[in-house]
Design brief:
The protein is mostly helical. It contains 5 helices and no strands. It is about 65% helix and about 0% strand. The chain is globular and about 40 Å long.
């Protein structure tokens, strides 16, 4: 039986996993931000959930699309385990 997947939530871990995977692909965070007309500060607020309106939700969707959920999900879960949020 496959493990249940954790729901991806905005927060500092979301942002750190996103930026790490983006950099691993060879794409600077500044490039993603520029393509979507965001400052790094605004993008970080949107990713962390500090800003949670429709535009923030859309940006988080774009962040997941950029990386691919199939790549993001296991690394996100791994990080949650490392931080002690999951067993």
């Amino acid at each position: 039986m496959p493990k249940d997947r954790v729901v991806i939530q905005p927060g500092p871990i979301f942002y750190e996993v996103f930026t790490g995977l983006l950099k691993a692909q060879g794409t600077p965070v500044t490039e993603f931000a520029a393509r979507h007309k965001l400052s790094i500060t605004n993008m970080k607020f949107m990713a962390s959930g500090a800003s949670n309106g429709p535009k923030s939700k859309k940006i988080r969707e774009l962040m997941l699309e950029e990386i691919g959920v199939e790549m993001f999900q296991p690394m996100y879960e791994r990080r949650l385990r490392k931080e002690g949020y999951l067993k």
